[in-house]
What does this fold into?
Amino acid sequence: QVQLVESGGGLVHAGGSLNLSCTASGSIDSFYSMGWFRANAEDQRELVAGIRGDGSTNYEDAVKGRFTISRDNTKNMVYLQMNNLKPEYTAVYYCSAFDEKYVWGQGTQVTVSS
It folds into this structure.
């Protein structure tokens, strides 16, 4: 099974930027979609951004125009460029791969200070 490892989280001031990376241990070509989720304190996860194999994307309304998801199938990587961050975006962010079921990374903490 493919394993996912996130990186790029950290502490940033409001208005700042972060670029999250997700490295897959194998090919991501076979997955229907890749995505980034945000988890709350109860580990309930909601989709922030998704990208399908054809390159089409979808975003949570709150991050449209601020976040950009992309993928590089040659490197088996997925990225989330996060701009103009707000304190309410503070959370653990998880990379996911979906094809009949979800595969999850271990998460990376993003903290946005006001």
